[in-house]
Write a structure and sequence with these properties.
two-stranded antiparallel sheet; single chain; about 25% helix; alpha+beta; elongated; Alpha-Beta Plaits
């Protein structure tokens, strides 16, 4: 099982990485903070200072089709915001 699924590269995440040295990742739903810290340190060769996690709940969607309303839900996603030690950087574009 892979702990870190993919980095999250959005405008908000890029701003946080430039200002506060924080990087966002989509992680496995059952991963805890210690596992996330060890996975990021081993994958990218950096030292992690702090890990914050958030579970993004499913979003309900309704779509109008010819046969009526169609309802669906998006997937539940767990995100981790990892703060690196001062002076360390991470190049997310190198591993894409």
């Amino acid at each position: 099982m892979s702990i870190v699924i993919r980095p999250i590269i959005t405008e908000k995440a890029s701003s946080a990485s430039e200002r506060y040295n924080r990087y966002s990742f989509e992680v496995a739903p059952k991963a805890n903070k210690i596992e996330i810290k060890n996975a990021v340190e081993s994958a990218y060769g950096v030292s992690v200072e702090k890990v914050r996690t958030i579970i993004v709940r499913a979003e309900r969607r309704t779509r109008n089709t010819k046969s009526g309303l169609q309802r669906s839900k998006s997937a539940v996603v767990k995100k981790a915001i990892v703060q690196l030690a001062e002076g360390e950087t991470l190049n997310l574009y190198a591993n894409l």
